[in-house]
Amino acid sequence: MIQSMTGYAATTAESARGTLSLELRSVNSRFLDVQMRVAEELRALEPMLREKIGERVARGKIECRMFLVEGSAPATELNEAALSQLKTLAAKAKKAFPKGEELRIADVLRWPGVVSSPAADERELRPIAEKLCRKALEEFVAARSREGAKLAAAIAERIAAMRVRVEAIAPLMPQSVAAYKEKLTARLREAIDSADDERVRAEVTVFAQKADVDEELTRLRAHLAEVERVLKQGGAVGKRLDFLAQELNREANTVASKSVSQAISEAALELKLLVEQMREQVQNLE
Question: Which of 28, 79, 194, 198 has its CA 20 to 30 A from that of 95?
Answer without folding.
Answer: 79
